[in-house]
Amino acid sequence: MHMAAAPTQRKPTFFWQGLLILLPVLVLAVVGLISLRQDERSAEADAHTRAAENLQSLAIAMRDSVDGELQRFLTLQNVWMIGLRLASQPSVSGEFPDVKLKADIEKWERDYPKYKFTDLAVPNAEILTNGEAIDPPDFPAAPTPPKWFLEFSSLQKNSWENLRAAKTQKEIESRRQIFLDGKPSGEAQQAAFNLFRPPEEMAGHSNFQFTESGITFEEIACYQLLSATNAQLTTDLLQSIWWRVIDQPSFLSPKLLQLAQTLTNRAGANLRQKFFWTQQFWNRQSQVREWIAPLRKISDSTNHWNLASSFSRWAGDSSNAPLAFFEPTTFVNMSNNSNGNPFEGKGYAIKFVPREVVETIFEKALSENKFLIPKFAGAIVFAEGKPLCRTDKANLSPESFQLKTSPPIASILPQTKTGVNFGITFYLVSREQMLASEHRRAKLFGVLILGSALSALIGFVAAWRAFRRQQQLGELKSNFVSSVSHELRAPIASVRLMAENLEHGKISGTQKQNEYFRFIVQECRRLSSLIENVLDFSRIEQDRKQYEFEPTDVIALMQTTAKLMEPYAAEKGVHLKCELPVPVQNQILELNLDGRAIQQALVNLIDNAIKHSPKDETVTMGIEIKNAKLKIKNDDSANTAASLNSQLSTLNLFVSDHGPGIPRAEHGKIFERFYRLGSELRRETQGVGIGLSVVKHIVDAHGGKILVQSEIGQGSRFTIELPGKN
Ligand code: ADP
Questions:
Q1: Is the pLDDT of residue 225 over 70?
Q2: Rg (CA), the chain
Q3: What is the C-alpha to C-alpha distance for residues 475 and 117, in angstroms, rounded to an integer?
Q4: Looking at 259-263, 447-451, 631-635, 704-708, which range is the least confident one?
Q5: From the CA of 524, how far away is ligand 1's center (Å)?
Q6: How does residue 641 score in pLDDT terms, banded at 50, 70 and 90?
Q7: Pocket lining: 609 vs ligand 1, CB cutoff 6 Å
Q8: Quick check: CB of 670 below 6 Å from ligand 1?
Q9: What is the number of H-type helices and E-type strands within the chain?
Q10: Ligand 1 within 6 A of 608 CB?
């Protein structure tokens, strides 16, 4: 059997408790703050994903809207242009535009109030993949002699020159016969007849025949008729002009129109209208001629020809170039080119939509679906590689399409059914707005996290201080116990020794015996005073201390206390002086207080003073009356006491000594329980460290104040301030 070793008592520490309080909160706070940061990143990613989804929907919605509107414009343009081409011919009668077309145009113009439809519409164009233009017809800048002329043999050429030089009808007929006998081509034969027909006869019958110079006979006839002195615009003449200008234009066409224009004033309303339309159609055709010039050179129009796929291109790089829609077509035996060969083979029908109309159509489609654009983003729309519109039009300029400062969020490149490749890009306008709700949340949680971390920290500090105080108190208490036992041991031992000596008759002589008895009584008094203090202290600690207030004569109280302490002072070789106000000596200075308690307080103060005083020094106790009014006004000694009692404001009881004094820093602490100056080992004076704390409690209970005035080497003065009656 062996004995278990007694567990070594370890000094309690606060480490684990503190760790358990702080660590979880700190870990939570750090993790919380990190996750808030990550939340921001994922909120950003979420916003981008949502934007991309919206962009998808926007692309679909815009594509449908754009397709519909482009188709609408193209159809209306086609109907209008076919109608205009027909109606502009003088030989064709009928209403133009008809009621339906008129209504359709009006409706379109209501939807696009910025534009006048008839100013925008242009005819379709037709080209072959090799770039040859079918419609509007191409014509050389300068005329070249026709094939029939170039094919002449020298003989034929001679007879043709002869024929042309003929003057009389007879000459004409004989020379023409000679020419025909030379077996020229059919066209040359026709030319031989046309050469001498009067212009009036030529007008009004479409005639494609070229003269030897490469100009048509009909054109020459028109020119002659228009520039005659009494020229007049007739239906036949205007019809001829129409054919020459619209069907088979040449470098002369503008001149013919210009001459005809001067005659319109004298023509009838119908002819005027017809001329106006012809002119309009010619102008539109000229416009298209200009537009297709760059398109005819597009190399991929030859490479990618595919009947099933239409496509679109900007007609040129200028900012107002229209959008051209290419529809692959196979042309079969169309009209002839300027060399007289028919157009045949693969090609395209090309339709145009003016740039501004395309812009408006896309803008409309964008603003109709604006709700799909996230609040924090802007949108830019491109078509066939050119920026068309953006949401914040306020700062719309060619440069502002460059996304220099605002990074793109999402982009998409859909294609319309009409074959327009367009693109939409969302770009970031306000990152703040994108993360607004996330930021609100983060702020809230951040405040919560920091708040709880802070409160945990405060709790930790408070707990640590309480722990420290408790620890110090524990130390003080154990010191207290040893001090009390120490304080008790010496007097009890000496009392026992003296009592034993008396008992055994070892002390002879009554005077000596009396001295012994006095000593014993005095020691017992001191003991009971000490025990009284300890008991009082424990009552105070347990909140059981009760005070009995009754009118008490303070002067008498001071005097008895002085008497009580005198023997002790004498024993220590210290003088005890009691200073009481002179005139009051025979008067009663009454206050409502617990006399026993105040006396105990005084005893404690005097006891300390004597204890700390060197031999032969004086301890002074006394009363001070604080009442300025009284002192100035009423100096009559006899009345002072009476007035005192009724006008008293404060009454100070003081005890002062010439001891070592108390350092200023310790002034507050000496009233704490168990507190004693210096270390436990180096202390010379007796005491247990509760005297002043009992004093403080008593004075507090009386509604008074305990004050200390002391410097090192200057002695100490303790003052009990008691409130007077008012
Ligand atoms: P104690 O039983 O130690 O006297 P007290 O509470 O009465 O306990 O006093 C607390 C401390 O204050 C003392 O230990 C002493 O150091 C200091 N003290 C009290 N009175 C005086 C005085 N008159 N002169 C110098 N020091 C004093």
A1: yes
A2: 64
A3: 104
A4: 631-635
A5: 22
A6: very low
A7: yes
A8: yes
A9: 22, 16
A10: yes
Residue 619 CA, ligand 1 centroid: distance in Å:
15
Q: How far apart are the first and last CA of the chain?
A: 79
Ligand 1 centre distance from Cα of residue 54 (Å) = 84
Q: Which of 523, 519, 545 has its CA nearest to residue 533?
A: 545
Identify the CA nearest to 225 among candidates 212, 248, 241. Answer: 241
Banded model confidence at residue 325, pLDDT cuts 50, 70, 90: very high
Phi, psi (5° rounding) for residue 708?
Answer: -125, 135
Q: What is the 3-state secondary structure (H, E, C) of 434-490?
A: HCHHHHHHHHHHHHHHHHHHHHHHHHHHHHHHHHHHHHHHHHHHHHHHHHHHHHHHH
Ranking 44-58, 618-632, 681-695 by mean pLDDT, the lowest is: 618-632
CA dist 23 and 681 (Å) reads 41
What's the pLDDT score for residue 479? 79
- Mutate which of 481, 666, 690, 692 for ligand 1 pocket (most atoms within 8 A of beta carbon): 692
User: By alpha-carbon position, which residue is closest to atom 14 of ligand 1?
Assistant: 676
> 595: Cβ below 6 Å to ligand 1?
no
For the four alpha carbons of 259, 260, 263 and 264, in that order, the dihedral sign comes to negative
Candidates 525, 620, 529; CA nearest to 567 is 525
Going by the DSSP 8-state scheme, the letter that residue 129 receives in this structure is T
pLDDT of residue 130: 86
